[in-house]
Amino acid sequence: MAQQRLRLTITVQDGVTKKPIPGASVFIAETKAGAKADSLGNALINHAPGVLTVYVSAVGYIRGRETIVLDFNKRIVYALQPRSTDLEEVDVRATREDQNIRTVQMGQIQLSMPELKRMPVVLGEPDILKALALQAGVTTAGEGAGGFNVRGGRSDQNLVLVDGAPLFNTSHLLGFYTNINPDLVQDVSLSKGAFSAQYGGRVSSLLLMSTRNGNKDGWRLSGGVSPVSVRAVVDGPITRKLTLLAGGRIAFPNYLLQVFPSPSVKNSRAFFYDANLKLTYTPDERNTIALSAYRSQDNFRFPGDTLYGWNSQVLTGRWSYLVQPNLQLNLTALYSGYHLNVDGVKPGLTFRFASYIEQREGKADLFYTLRQKYKVQVGANGILYQIQTGDVQPTGENSSINPQRIAPEHGRKLGAYVNTEWELTPKISFQAGLRYSAFALLGARTVYDYAPNGPRSPETVIDSARYGSGQAVQTYGGLEPRLALRVQVATHTAVKASAGRTRQYVNLISNTTAITPLDFWKLSDRYVPPQIADQVSLGVFQNLRDNAFEVSVEGYYKRLQNQIEYRYGANLILNPTLETALLQAAGRAYGVEFGVSSNKGRLTGQLNYTYARSLVSVQTPYDELRINNGAYYPSYIDRPHTLNVQARWAMSHNWSFSANFVYYTGVPATYPDGQYTYNGEPVQDYSRRNADRIPDYHRLDVAFSKDTRFNKAQRRYGIWTLGVYNVYAHKNPYSIYFTRFNQRTEAYRLSVFGTLIPSIAYNFYF
Known about the structure:
Blueprint: E1 6-14, E2 25-28, E3 34-36, E4 42-47, E5 50-57, E6 64-70, E7 74-80, H1 99-102, E8 108-111, H2 113-116, H3 128-132, E9 138-139, E10 149-150, E11 158-162, E12 165-166, E13 171-172, E14 177-178, E15 185-191, E16 205-211, E17 220-225, E18 229-237, E19 242-251, H4 254-257, H5 263-266, E20 269-281, E21 287-301, E22 306-324, E23 327-344, E24 351-370, E25 374-394, E26 404-405, E27 409-425, E28 428-442, E29 445-450, E30 461-467, E31 472-490, E32 493-504, E33 506-509, E34 520-523, E35 531-544, E36 549-566, E37 582-598, E38 603-617, E39 633-634, E40 641-650, E41 655-664, E42 668-669, E43 674-678, E44 681-685, E45 692-693, E46 697-707, E47 717-725, E48 735-741, E49 744-750, E50 757-765
Parallel strand pairs: 1-7, 11-16
Antiparallel strand pairs: 1-4, 2-3, 2-5, 5-6, 8-15, 9-10, 11-12, 13-14, 15-16, 17-18, 17-50, 18-19, 19-20, 20-21, 21-22, 22-23, 23-24, 24-25, 25-26, 25-27, 27-28, 28-31, 29-30, 31-32, 32-35, 33-34, 35-36, 36-37, 37-38, 38-39, 38-40, 40-41, 41-46, 42-45, 43-44, 46-47, 47-50, 48-49
């Protein structure tokens, strides 16, 4: 009888909406056993019979306590009450108050979606990426720039997954908004370090976003209105076992673009929408089937005669089967595509330029838990890529544009992994994983050979080889080990370390600082080997005053191989010999991240400071290709100093005040350092790449929020948010450019937001 173990299943629900709470933490005080709730809110613990004191907690909820007599297999439902008086803009805590001390993972950021909607943001729209950019180690290229950068990594080096499917474009309106409607998102987690071996394909970070399941107990409507967009989400039960979640967002920013001081913004036109659909079917306690769909569309017209349009489509099907109480199988099939169209509408020069990337993937994952202290994950996946780098066709009868099409690229990637997490003692635990990936570039394709004693150029092609459809053109592969260790040196202090290697076989081709509509994706080939990153990190984490304050210091060093750089004057668009414009570079990034957060009381917030460097070196035997004489120089995302301060004051009558202050070093830039005369005309000379910087960036944002609820159980309520972005109207420069005027070289500063931007937003819940 002493060896008998019984099954305790706890379903954690929201005490108001009765919705499941994925990721909720269940903890047994007597034996320190614990579990984390799955996507349906179910937490499973195998435990010896007895009287147990069970604690249940989740982000944004009041911690619960229950005494349970476990004398046979039991299943109970526990309702957590929302926390309404202790809300922060961005909650970086996990499900337990001391999760940052207890877990082995480091370099992780988790966002709380309810608190996200109270942040002061541009144009009044809650935004996931803008919230992440306030965290240590995360930056962006600037205002109006898409994508984000993590620990010196480039935008395309982030693996962004929505319900397990990758997003190749993460922003609307050239970076002003995240592609995903925040009203639909349940959890957001960003891993900056050596993430789990379950994931691969990018060398910088892993961003996981999961949409919530439909409400089982009744239909609900929620949404919001801001100065440039309208959002709506509806969810509820179609039948007792089938739920629906559907939402959409549409934007109308043209009237606001006209008030910006920059002519390039003032005279632009823009539009976007996105839509999500999720069906969840649970025929019994062992099976769950989920189908998720997503689509977005952007249109943007700069001043002139060119219209840009891009869209994303995602479709994911997942079957989760509980084989045994401690063994779960997940099978997933997905499609993700990103398509770009550029339409020229100038009379006589009408055309359409198109590029795209499509990914089809199938994967299987098996999760095994032994007495909550030893966990094993194994899995495998297969991916098919298809990429069109460029295709231009004339439109209209009188167009003088010549058609040109680059042959599509096809690729196949296979992967398998094993990942373990073991709690050796209550104070020592580790996570170890190993992933193997194999990539093949497939035909049909023509590969050029170049003269061996000089730089590659279209003039030095000496031969070519033609590969048939489906034939392997080039193969790569290798192991990707991951390791993490936690040592709890005191009750509220832990030291953590991690190391890992990752590989990336798809690359975004762009020689601009920020992501633009004309960027395109490319697979690794004979001349573009996969990117490889090795990162090690070490951190100290401490909680003070009963977990009211969290203090952390993390240091990291990252080495990158086979990064892509570009020759001076590189021609990237519609280049049939693109490899002649690309250079192979080595990179290194290192830094220290310091963070302090206050989680309890009426005044909450956090302070994050990061010292970080991101350097790159192009080393080649050919002098004409060597950049900065082969020495390491700052990459275009190098920002040595970053400071983010957030504060929130919970006022009376459900009012709250929040403020953000942001400062970071200006990004590197290449300024002319002289001029020479060629054929009687002065020519500017740019001899050192990224040797200068644009001025530093800083701004202050404030917001007041009013929650109309009278009590926690109120189901129908609204939240008003009045905010001001860039309070003191600082003209932060986005770029500095130079031109010749009256025999002189003059510099011009471009600011996207050169003034303060007031906004008002309303979020409703019915």
